[in-house]
Amino acid sequence: EDKVVQSPLSLVVHEGDTVTLNCSYEVTNFRSLLWYKQEKKAPTFLFMLTSSGIEKKSGRLSSILDKKELSSILNITATQTGDSAIYLCAVLNDKLIFGTGTRLQVFP
Amino acid sequence: ETGVTQSPTHLIKTRGQQVTLRCSSQSGHNTVSWYQQALGQGPQFIFQYYREEENGRGNFPPRFSGLQFPNYSSELNVNALELDDSALYLCASSLVSTGAEQYFGPGTRLTVT
Fold first, then answer.
1. Can the peptide bond before residue B8 be classed as cis, meaning omega within 30 degrees of 0?
2. Using CB atoms, which residue from B33, B58, B104 is nearest to A43?
3. Per the CB < 8 Å rule, is A92 touching B88?
4. pLDDT tens digits for B65-94?
5. What pLDDT does B98 receive?
């Protein structure tokens, strides 16, 4: 059965800290891995990583795909209170398979 | 460019009733996927519609059904509602059926009592 596992489930940090969120997967017919940020309702797209694009960066956020280890990490540097959200990892084969998410809380 | 929209925002139904949720895809997108997100869980794939045809289905019973219209908007219908159907229902659109990032709407919060 296809599955995506995220860790940790929850993370509490102070502003300015750097965090690393983990995602591992066992999925047949892997096409790509996506990261989303979910604050209230709609998950918002962050990154898509594929075999031809295993590292992405946008501002303080960056992500790497390790196809050998079947995993990905999402790094957030210099965290801000506005980074508080649930971060979802999803793997695309013929559908998106989501992990349960990591809840990040950033306190001032 | 218009984003993904969903209606209604919130809905309360009684067990056994039927419900229809609606989704308008992002401009230019021809694929719509529906997800169920229970509290504390990641979204679970229900089904996908591509050019008005069902193009993949997750592990949901037949009482979950859908439609896609020529303008690529979509409906999710759930019959014989059960208490466990209470969840956030998310719609996502994408430019093609596979390999493209999906953009999510704000969701419909369904409560079944």
1. yes
2. B104
3. no
4. 999 999 899 999 999 999 999 999 999 998
5. 62
